[in-house]
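User: Round two. Same drill as before: sequence, then structure, for each protein.

Assistant: Same drill it is. First protein:
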Amino acid sequence: MKRKFLEELGLEQEQIDAVMKEYGSSVESYKTTISQFEEDLVKTKEELANKAKSLEEFEQKANLSEEQAKELQQLKESYEKQLEEQEKKIKTTKLNSALNVAIAKSGTVDEVALKAHLSDFLEEAEFDDESGTIKGLDEKLSEIKQEKTYLFKKGATGVEHKEAPKVDTTLEEINKAMGVK
């Protein structure tokens, strides 16, 4: 979100600062979550690489009996399965993090409903490691914004706009608006 856009909407500097601060904090929390997952990913990959190296070294050094060779083979298969499961978890985590960031930026009024409308798309969605986004998500969100405008705040800025009060409002009009007789 850009300040110029908010200025064009007629917001005052104080309002713009408040909107940008809130927007920044929500995006930053998602970025922090993503970086934590990336750190965990690096650590996990290092651990798995060390285990694989240890298994290879053990296999080379040992004169194994038939029973030990079978056990080693089972350990290798278990390792491969764990590696595959870990890669799936990492892919899912990256996809969910990118989705949460995109939804936070979209200006939706109902994240759950928007995710429901994206569910078919997400079943086949691919995460782009290079850009850190989901391929085609921006286009899909634009399509949903046009079809389902009720899911998004006016202007999709995350700011609900209210009509400015009249300058020449009389006391009688104010009391009437407040329900005072």
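Second protein:
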Amino acid sequence: MADDLEQQAVELTGNVGEIQATHITVINGVVQEAHAENLALENGGIGRAHARTLSMQDGGIGIVRAEGVSLEDGGAGLVLTDSMTLEDGGAAVIIADRVTAQDAFIGVVLGDVQGEAQVMLDWRAALAFGAALGLVFGLVKTLLGRKR
């Protein structure tokens, strides 16, 4: 299979560098970068994905930008989306208007989370952490400045 593809509909099982099509389905494959209207991933991996809708089952994605994202039994590094459904999976960072989660783990989320998810840091906690860190650095700088 060619390293770079551009078509209307593509279904692949293998390794591809960059792929661009209206509809892409990846099954047991690895893609470095994918651009599509509708992107589906099953038992595979994508480095960077840009799509209108993305659905993934049993796979992993490094960075994804899509209007709608559905992840089941998989994980993602950075997700930028309007709406996301996350079931039995996880994501390091999610920036979304809405996240619906079921048995999920999220590192940092900027957006509204509904459902069952273990979230390490939401936007409120990030704001409080930043304010506290700024206060501590300000105090340390003031105290160190007085000793000189």
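The helical segments are 123-146.

User: Perfect.
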